[in-house]
Amino acid sequence: MSLGAIITAVVTPLQPDGAVDESGFVELLGYCAEHGSDGFVICGTTGEAPTLTTDEHLRLIELAVAERPAGTTIIAGTGSNDTAHAVEMTSRAAASGADAILSVTPYYNRPNRAGVRAHYEAVAAASDLPIVLYNIPSRTGLDLPNDQLAELAQIETVRFVKQANPDNLAPVDGLGIYAGNDDMLADVLDLGGEGGILVASHLVGPQMRRMVDSPDERARIDATLRPFFDALGVTTNPIPIKAALSMMGLPAGPLRLPLVEATPDERRVIADAMAAVGLEPAS
């Protein structure tokens, strides 16, 4: 099966008082779909999942399923370092009508190899949805080498990996590869991978779509977008993309502590990179 090539890890727009902005969330889904996105990760890192309540988390998945733009896929972020919680969230996301599950490696606990397999076997048993593993050692402190990914691919519903460790980027038997970082998209496509689970696609989705559809232009487009990718890493994600969305007049709103707003210097870096790719801030 295919989940799409340009998957946007969508932010969770918040109102000034910190409540979830549901109408803004639906608006943002529509905007991204009109600008190249095939699908969405709901309640991932970019969606500030660690500071959403369980009720907010599940409501956003339900809302995305109910209001999805035509033809798009909904991938529910349900990962946890607590296997029982990951199982519960996976089961409830499946009941809500999600198309697939994004399941990050258990963080902080640092389970051994047998523990990681047992964790994913339990998650897989919670539903029949395809699972996208999420390997991001910079945040979790746990890396899945490619031989371990191939072992996990033996679990029936483990179908893909969101690979955010460029040192591990290579084909893996049994798994479709998604770029876990924007600057890995071109390399993943060149390897014959599925596409990317991306942040920059909120605002440069059409260009990233052309990277998929026009291989001869891929390297050139990637080069033009690199400054924007870099700017979205000027501080911790999703701080920069929320700043950029706000500059464009799109729903984003504040962040929840412990994340804080971009500084004036960071906003200048982001604004300069936006200008370089032709993004004009709203008046």
Helical/strand content category: alpha/beta
Q: Spell the H/E element sequence.
A: EHEHEHEHEHHEEHEHHHH
Secondary structure tally: strands: 8
Stretches with pLDDT under 50, minimum 5 residues: none
What global shape is seen?
globular
Characterize this entry briefly.
With 283 residues, the protein is α/β, with parallel strands linked by helices. The chain is 42% helix and 13% strand.
Notes on the protein architecture:
The chain has helices at 22-34, 54-67, 83-96, 113-125, 137-140, 146-152, 185-190, 201-213, 218-231, 239-247, 264-276; strands at residues 6-9, 39-42, 73-77, 100-104, 131-135, 158-163, 176-179, 195-198. It contains eleven helices and eight strands. It has an eight-stranded parallel β-barrel with strand order 1-2-3-4-5-6-7-8, surrounded by five helices. The mean pLDDT is 97. The protein has a single domain (6-218), classed as TIM Barrel. It is globular.
